[in-house]
Specification:
By secondary structure, this protein is an alpha+beta fold. The chain contains ten helices and 34 strands.
Amino acid sequence: MRLLLLSVTLSVVAAGCADEGPVNALCTGPACAGGDVAFGADGSGDVRGPDVGAPDTGTPPDAVADTASQPDGSSMPDGLATPDADAVGVPDGSPPEDVVTIPDTSEPDAVVVPDAPTPDASTGECATDADCAAIYGSGGLDVCEEWSCNAQQLCEVLEAPDATPCFSGDEDGLCDAGSCVFACGDGFLQESIGEECDDDNLTSGDGCRSDCIIEEPIGEGWTGGQCEIDADCAPTGSICIPGAGGGSCALPCTSTCADQAGAPVTFCIDADEYDDAMDVTLPGELYPALCVSKCDFELFPRTGCRNGFHCELHNRHNQSVQDEVCVPGDWHAGLQLSADGSEVVGLDSGAEPPAQPYLKLLDLTCGGSFAPVDAQLFRAMADTLMAMGPDGRSENWDRLCSVPSNLPDTAHGLHAQVAAEQGFRLVGSRVDIVNWTAAGVYGSKALRGDLVGGPLWPVRSMVYGGSSYYLYADAAADYPYPWYPDRGRDFGTVNGDEWEPMDARLVPEEEYVTAKANKGDRFHRGWGRADVVAYVADMAIDHLLIHGEPLGIGDLSFPPGGDIDDHASHELGRDVDLYLLTTEPVFNGNALGARPWLWVSTCNSGPCYYYENDTGDDEDLSDAAHVPAADLLTTLAQYAYDNDGPTHFVQHDTDVLVPFVDLPGSSPVYVHGDNDGALGWPPHQNHIHMRFPL
């Protein structure tokens, strides 16, 4: 406890104190000193009490001592002498109000404290705890301390009661015996003690386990899945490994493992390779080899593995066959990081060397030595190689130590990153770049309800297409998408034009939908010229504001352009398909779920009919709550007329497009069911095709 004594300084007359004796209210000597009040170093912090080491500096605060001499200028009466000139005065032999008079032959009287004093910063007097807090605030208090008004009605600092919320470093906790304590179940997420969640209880089964680990579906039992006990795992004979990602199901093996439907594929590896990064002992039953899950970049697009695991390339037990598998611990096991963890600086001499592909990334040097690499970029490159699967086992990133002649600088400062030795690229064919971009930027090409992003999501990347093709990544802190605060810039340079993905302009599922009912999300087919992407994004927002429904946006082009399967016209980043949406539950006998999809119309050579959004039946135009599909299409046609951009607007519904055909101005050519053959366009019954100029 620290006590702040801010009271009236008393001149006490008693025998036995030397003139230069200590300041002490209970002093028994003939002259007890009354010193100046000590404040914080800057004069504005806590008032700390009498300053015993300070010389007389003149008039102390009024409530501490009155400037005193006799009215005639003479010294204090006999028996009330003090060593300072600033003695307590007693005019006319009678004490002033609030000054204690002590006979010169007796022990000091008890200090008289007025009833309910007015809070005073110079004296520390108080009536309630709130008085002290109002005067001094929290300045200068340590964690788990608070102001209190004591029985003498003076402000003092005491331990905060247990369970008082506190803050230490970057994390919240609760006070316990004067210390800020972190614990599972206190309602605060504390990563420093390994918590992944904290829901203010110690109960499992509610999404946050009793050990503050995020709860994955326990009981499904897939190999590599989360568990607390062996019974959570399947198949028979599985063992729950404690400590690995909150517990992980495993099975002994000799060479192969049984896969489970709906779960990652499994792989048999040496037990010694699995437990290098673990803090617990691997159960003996799992030696010499155990089944683990392979990295799955469709289930876990960023890293390929669930929380608590990272992806590495390992051999099958007693064989040379390799595959990417999930092993527990930090991804940088075997690597040395800088003191702040921001850079990979080389091998950790005190640990086992890392597995591939981390190890081969350390071979990327400039001038024969490994220059530190941004840690986030280093992991992104390693995980991209593993997301590429067999391609990644044979490929490696090039480290750019000088600026290549075909690396455009654009407005994004790529050359500066190369000069800092923080620029890397993969070189391949156009098809390679399409696949590698799908793996690196999106994690996979498979259907996914939300755009999560792949390994390259947190760093800046560029796709280059032209006389050569490559995927480039660097460590620039370039985060231009406020709706994705952790996403680095993604763009392309194709034949000298800057390209963008549509998801860099719009938020999937909120502002547009890209999933076809029969093909799923295909974000890697949504790249186009930046001006085309910007125009379509504005059109989608306009449609959303008018009708309250997002727009369906299908194919533009592949990231580097060129041939695109089943859609030959989409090669130059200037063609885009637009759809209306449906939430029909079944399409061609297949259950679609609750999310919206791109609609399919019954618009053939005759009149056009459209499906209801929620039933899949032909739309009921007599339903007042239903917005006719023709009205939605007309909004898009009107936008294209009002805003310069596209050269062609193609859709089969004559009723929608005929009114625009003969309008004056620079509107696009509106191609519909009556003129599509004459203009060389195939029928577009179920979507709009917009083309922009070369």
